[in-house]
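User: Run a structure prediction on this.
Assistant: Running it now.
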Amino acid sequence: MPAAEMTMTTDEKEPDKAPVVNGTETLPRQTGKQSDPSTAFLRAARAGHLDKVLELLDSGVDINSCNANGLNALHLAAKDGHVDIVSELLKRGCVVDAATKKGNTALHIAALAGQEEVARILVQNGAVVNVQSLNGFTPLYMAAQENHDGVVKFLLSKGANQALATEDGFTPLAVAMQQGHDKVVAVLLENDTRGKVRLPALHIAAKKDDCKAAALLLQNEHNPDVTSKSGFTPLHIAAHYGNVNIANLLHQKNANINYAAKHNITPLHVASKWGKLPMVQFLIEKGAAIESKTRDGLTPLHCAARSGHDQV
């Protein structure tokens, strides 16, 4: 099979969905009748029992002790918004940026849980705002994912860098768009002064046929032909999924109908290969070159025929 056909999928080596954090590490259930002081300390912090926390600290429990997952008292108190315990732990010198095995700090955990007041206290006490977990998640990404617009605004005000992406290349804006969090999307766009964070958000909008999100991204003359890591434009993505509405919007914003991605693959090649007849008709109507050839000499007609799409 020619190389061009093998590489014509717009999803090649590129996740088409922003990763979603389903939660941070958990505290194992107590199995015995009695627990050791460290475990009792962690459980008291999670439950919000300040008196018990202080009692155990005064008895000599290590303030930075953690369980097998790396969760410590600060993490657990942060998750459930126990401001008094968080403040007391910090006052007594616990490590503010101690990370779990997954690389999550207390600020990550507070952001994911929407605990804005806890996030403020952590940052006031020196928590690193742009810290990334093992998979590249930032506190801003986690807050954006869960639609915690208050936390998002606070983190941005403290210098959160929304261009920091996960290991797969997804930004906070991308995950907010994917999850349909309009408020957070608006906040992130308002704070995007450099216009550098919108990849692959526009590609996600193209896949979802989400004209509303795409229109937000395309305002202020944002480049409609921005390319993904694999070299494809949003119009290639729209062609792949047959999303004519978004293709029309991209065309109105002066997207290049004949943009040749790697191996000289155009949107018409993609639509033809995947049998998206309405998209093929739309692209031709808008001036797509029907005789354009890939690096291996394939025209859109070749692509349609080889994939068995007789109607195309």
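The chain is about 45% helix and 0% strand.
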